[in-house]
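Worked example

This section walks through a single chain of length 331. The input is the sequence exactly as stored; nothing has been trimmed or padded.
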Amino acid sequence: MYFVSLFLAYIALCIAGFLCYWFQDPAVFQNASVKWVMQVAGNFTPQFVKTIAYDFYRIVFLERNTILRNIYILLVILGHLVIILDIFPHNYTYHPRENHVIIPLLMLLVSSVLFIICNLTDPGTITRRSNHYNKVFTYDGVLYKAGKMCSTCKVVKPARSKHCTLCQSCTFKFDHHCSWVNQCIGGLNQRYFLGFLISVCAMCANAITMAVRTLWDITQHKQLWQTKYVDSNGDPQPMNALTLSQYLFMQNPRIVFLAASLSTILVLLGAFTSYHLYLAAVNQTTNERYKHHYLQTSRHGYKMVNPYDKGIWKNFEEVLWPNVAHIKLKD
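Given that input, the structure is written out below as tokens.
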């Protein structure tokens, strides 16, 4: 039961962290459903715990810093150490003729390159000299109105742009501020962000496959399904899945924990990646989707119209090759 308790605690921690990242925009907490959940949770939470949790949330998600980025790098290093120290020796013992290094190495290389690009690429920062951004999208008259000035940056806000309070700048085709890469996701780096998300999902799936295969090889080699265990009364019992899992965890804790933890992360990250792929397919940003949802709930009879949707292929083409590049060349 120790393994089960530890794994359930880990799942709860992952879900809490994922929700904090998902709801890092303070405006989200104005939603009635979110308010209700927060109120119910707050009734059962001691005040000192709420204070610590809020301070942690504020520092990590509401202030620009490298905490999440450093945590991600640390987790990637620790995960690959488990693969090198625990999984590779079993792989080469049970399958000595296979090359077990090339695939995880390539996945790590691709993911690392995309991660670095996401951190360093300009998302589309708007300045007084970047007039070309005003020519990319038309104003819809609902979310974006012509001639509107940013009170902080003192520039005319192009359609689909938004001022980020963390970066202290306006961003072209603003999607959201990503604490993971410590900068905004906008029209110029959205493609790299999507590629990074997909690469991390692929890297997690490959690590899970390697870990599960290793545990299966150990089980088959030791014929664990054919063995029996002694229960609390001293009677021999046939092996079952729970007992086998506990045995494998006690003998190979890092491999089991890697497989179980990455499975949870893959589900959450897969949902997050699918959401962003959907937004790219309909040519909508996270910021726009939230604003349309707010208008639908606050204005009776309001119907969402997306004037920027050009069809799935054209929408993905715009993400992969932002049309702002052509306008820059013309200028």
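What to look for: The longest helix spans residues 190-221.
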